[in-house]
Amino acid sequence: MNFIPPFDLNEQFKLIGEEVSAAALAILASGRYIGGASVEQFEQQFAQYIGTSSCVGCNSGTDALFLALRSLDIGAGDEVITSPFTFISTAGVISAVGAKPVFTDIDAQTFNLDLDQIEAAITPRTKAIIPVHLFGQPIDMTRLMAIAHSHNLWVIEDCAQSTGATWQGTKLGSIGHIGCFSFYPTKNLGACGDGGAATTNDAAIAAKLRMLRDHGQRQRYTCEAIGVNSRLDALQAAILSIKLRHLDDWNAQRQAIADRYCQMLQPLPGVVTPQAITGGVSVWNQYTIRVLPNASEQGSGLRDRVRQQLQQQGVGSMVYYPYPLHLQPVYADLGYASGDLPVSEQMAQQVLSLPMFPELSAMQQEQVVHTLKDCLV
Ligand SMILES: *Cc1c(COP(=O)(O)O)cnc(C)c1O
Fold first, then answer.
1. From atom 5 of ligand 1, which residue's Cα is the shortest distance away?
2. How many angstroms does the Cα of residue 31 sit away from the middle of ligand 1?
3. 131 lines ligand 1 (CB under 6 A)
4. Would you call 200 helix, strand, or coil by DSSP?
5. Are 255 and 369 within one domain?
6. pTM of the prediction?
7. Which whole-number Å values give the CA distances from 68 to 11, 44, 72, 375, in the listed order?
8. Cβ of 100: how many Cβ atoms within 10 Å?
């Protein structure tokens, strides 16, 4: 049996390699590598796909989040509520603009922010909420927007893992004030390098995002703010336009794989499988189960052993994320202690993401599940 990686891009390249290579060569031959038609075209296509009036391409998902905060003038003295159970960049950008991240606990069923706990964390300094649609699963945006409206807060959606997912039929990234996307190669829509974008229906915000991503210039050599250099490369834009045409098919394949995992894993004691949320459609960037501790293997003990054994028996898996952000060394000065956000802490000890990519075959899935069952006894 061949090793089954947690993620594999080679199969996808076999499928679209010719088209991608031709587009890349055309850009290389054009001599126009920064900006130009391919970037503008992709921005238009992506805005149309998400259902917003604007899309502003940039260098990464992290930059999209950073620019979003800056475009809303969030900085020193401000607080931003977000999840402690996410990739570091979601909170890192809050710190990077000089504001303070405020973490509230998550819901064990969805791994997303627990909507019952947000209001208690709102203070006069709170300016925004950054919900993360983790693993591709949407948060209840109706409730979240209601909370935000009643407290006059901005909502920046971290859609890095949820490109194409919907809440009540509407694409994520078009419901909050700004949607932030990553085109890191392992995301649902991945470039062949770094890339990101921010989407919005607010023309003034879009103009500000464009100004900030280009050194604070609206007009060349007239700077009105300290911006950054955060561009989406012409090469990446051309490749993303090709891949965007396949995205819905790939997301449908991920859904079928998730359904099959769910069926195959259903009566498996000690394992909790992810459940879709009513009203939302996930795009399954990850298929993440929980391995529950038992009497002899406490904390993360059983999960860690299972992961190690899977690896030895030819099945790759990942732990997203082993440490909740409120307990990261860099945030020691925020004053959180172990036990403050118990659900996030527990999930960090139990989660295990199984192989998930559109080309994963039914046979490979059977091997994953068979091996997992072996490791659990
Ligand atoms: C990947 C990711 C980011 C950052 O995106 P980059 O393009 O890698 O900078 C932010 N938030 C979440 C939840 C992510 O998964």
1. 61
2. 30
3. no
4. strand
5. yes
6. 0.98
7. 34, 19, 7, 44
8. 15
* Domain membership flag for residue 139: yes
Distance CA 56, CA 63 (A): 11
Ligand 1 nearest-atom number relative to CA 89: 10
- Atom of ligand 1 minimally distant from the CA of 182: 7
- Ligand 1 center–CA 65 separation, angstroms: 9
Residue nearest to ligand 1 atom 2, measured at CA? 160
With the most atoms of ligand 1 within 8 angstroms of its CB, the residue from 113, 158, 230 to mutate is 158
Q: Do 210 and 118 belong together in one domain?
A: yes
2 occurs within a structural domain: no
Whether 287 and 352 have beta carbons less than 8 Å apart is answered as no
CA of 47 to the centre of ligand 1 (A): 19
Ligand 1 and 137: CB distance under 6 A:
no
Which CATH number characterizes residue 120's domain?
3.40.640.10
Residue 4: inside a domain, yes or no?
no
CB of 154 closer than 8 Å to CB of 127: yes
- pLDDT by position in tens, the chain (length 377): 689 999 999 999 999 999 999 999 999 999 999 999 999 999 999 999 999 999 999 999 999 999 999 999 999 999 999 999 999 999 999 999 999 999 999 999 999 999 999 999 999 999 999 999 999 999 999 999 999 999 999 999 999 999 999 999 999 999 999 999 999 999 999 999 999 999 999 999 999 999 999 999 999 889 999 999 999 999 999 999 999 999 999 999 999 999 999 999 988 999 999 988 999 999 999 999 999 999 999 999 999 999 999 999 999 999 999 999 999 999 999 999 999 999 999 999 999 999 999 999 999 999 999 999 999 98
The residue out of 190, 217, 244 marking a domain boundary is 244
How far apart are the C-alpha atoms of 69 and 85, rounded to whole Å?
20
Q: What is the position in ligand 1's atom list of the atom closest to the CA of 134?
A: 13
Ligand 1 pocket, 89 CB below 6 A?
yes
**Residue 338's domain spans which residues?**
247-375
Q: Is 173 in the pocket of ligand 1 (CB under 6 A)?
A: no
Let me know if 363 is exposed, middle or buried by CB neighbors in 10 A (0-12, 13-18, 19+): exposed
